[in-house]
Specification:
With 304 residues, the protein is an alpha/beta fold. It has a single domain, classed as Ribonuclease Z/Hydroxyacylglutathione hydrolase-like (Metallo-beta-lactamase, Chain A), CATH 3.60.15.10. It has eleven helices and 15 strands. The longest helix has 23 residues. It comes from Kribbella albertanoniae. One of its GO terms (molecular function) is hydrolase activity. Keywords: Hydrolase. This is MBL fold metallo-hydrolase.
């Protein structure tokens, strides 16, 4: 077991699914052709119109019938694209629903690799089985991809961040961004950034992804996190400041020769400007991941 699992009771996937299917899915129209599905498990964005349906995130496989019913309550357009923001089951589990309806599942090549095999997430230890073949991505991209449909340019940008399969999705005309789990905003459950260390994750990548997302933001951008209610670019900027401050402080301490245990022990001091009460991911665990990411990257920080 990981240190995190020892300190916390992490629910199994079956326990999580049992809770998820009892909660209703909220439906919120953002524009004539863009709708948000909001649920305790996360957020989906649905582009719908004459060119078909594109979904960002797919929820868990246990929710497929609920998701299909929710989408069919406001559009009969055929499924065309499904874009899981990463391969974890609560974001890609329902991909089979859309693929079975004719959609191309979209991701980076590593998404297909990860989905084709069982996985046990780092820190939290949540296990997932290999996905059925129908759910695997059939449209893969490298650094970036733009999908044009329903009068909207949908921009995808890939990062090795929360996992090595992350996509940040930007609806340019609607001024809406879906961050996936590079950013979470769970009400009543504050947390420092979580990276899946068993899936090639990097806190440096989270920093790069958040700072990229901020370049796309206006003062009125709607930001949909991987979990939790829609928020603002100002909140995302606060999160970016947290990430930048943590990495700069840790990099300075590494350059001064401080060992990892001493840096981790100073986590509360490093994050003193960003205090969180009883966070899901504690400050020490986040700073430990920052140390590891910087050491792998030879302490190089991306330029502002």
């Amino acid at each position: 077991m990981t240190a995190y699992e020892i300190a916390h009771k992490v629910p199994s996937r079956a326990e999580v699914n049992a809770m998820l299917v009892t909660a209703p899915i909220g439906i919120r129209r953002l524009s004539d052709r863009l709708t948000a599905l909001e649920h305790p498990s996360g957020n989906m964005l649905v582009s719908h119109g004459p060119d078909g349906v594109l979904v960002v995130d797919c929820y868990s496989d246990a929710m497929q019938s609920l998701v299909d019913k929710a989408i069919r309550s406001f559009t009969t357009a055929p499924y065309r694209y499904a874009v899981p923001t990463h391969f974890h089951y609560d974001h890609a589990g329902g991909a089979a629903l859309f693929a079975g309806g004719g959609a191309a599942v979209v991701g980076v090549p590593q998404t297909r690799h990860r989905m084709a095999a069982p996985h046990r997430a780092g820190h939290m230890g949540v296990e997932q089985e290999a996905y059925p073949a129908v759910a695997l991505p059939t449209l893969t991209y490298g650094d970036a991809l733009t999908l044009d449909l329903n009068g909207e340019s949908v921009g995808l940008r890939s990062f090795v961040a929360h996992t090595d399969t992350d996509s940040v999705v930007h609806f340019a005309e609607a001024d809406v961004i879906h961050t996936g789990d590079i950013f979470v905003n769970m009400e009543g459950v504050p947390t420092y950034p979580f990276v899946d260390t068993a899936a090639g994750a990097s806190t440096l990548g989270v920093l790069a992804a958040v700072e990229h997302a901020l370049t796309l933001c206006t003062t009125s951008t709607l930001v949909f996190p991987g979990h939790g209610p829609q928020t603002t670019s100002q909140h995302l900027a606060w999160y970016g400041d947290l990430l930048r401050t943590a990495h700069e402080s840790v990099a300075d301490r590494l350059a001064a020769g401080d060992p990892k245990p001493a840096i981790v022990a100073a986590a509360t001091e490093i994050l003193r400007s960003f205090p969180l009460e009883n966070p899901l991911i504690e400050d020490w665990l986040f700073i430990s991941d920052v140390v590891d990411s910087l050491q792998v990257a030879d302490q190089l920080l991306p330029a502002r």
